[in-house]
């Protein structure tokens, strides 16, 4: 059986970043192995037109990766981006109402 590819370490996907003077440091995403993995999965699933939901601990960058992709890199003719912020007080009912409003408004 012929191999179609090879394994690559996530570090190979990282590139150095210089902070542009006009960008606030808190808006800069520093490349790490985790950001490479998150972005890779995001790109693969979007290109395959598959739904995506990131879950995980607070403060790990989930929203930042997705917002960066959706606001700066996607084809606006093919995708629509909607953002819903959750907190510990967000109920399932509130989420459902928000999604229905987005879909049918």
UniProtKB/TrEMBL annotation:
Gene3D superfamilies: P-loop containing nucleotide triphosphate hydrolases (3.40.50.300). This is Dynein heavy chain hydrolytic ATP-binding dynein motor region domain-containing protein. InterPro entries: DHC (IPR026983), P-loop_NTPase (IPR027417). It comes from Protopolystoma xenopodis. One of its GO terms (cellular component) is dynein complex. GO terms for biological process: microtubule-based movement. GO terms for molecular function: dynein intermediate chain binding; dynein light intermediate chain binding. The lineage of its organism: Eukaryota, Metazoa, Spiralia, Lophotrochozoa, Platyhelminthes.
């Amino acid at each position: 059986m012929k191999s179609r590819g090879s394994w690559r370490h996530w570090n190979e996907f990282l590139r150095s970043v210089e902070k542009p003077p006009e960008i606030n440091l808190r808006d800069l995403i520093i490349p790490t192995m985790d950001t490479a993995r998150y972005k890779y999965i995001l790109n693969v699933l979007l290109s395959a037109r598959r739904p995506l939901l990131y879950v995980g601990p607070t403060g790990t960058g989930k929203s930042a990766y997705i917002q960066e992709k959706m606001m700066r890199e996607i084809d606006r003719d093919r995708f629509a981006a909607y953002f819903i912020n959750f907190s510990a007080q967000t109920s399932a009912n509130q989420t459902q109402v928000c999604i229905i409003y987005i879909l049918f408004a």
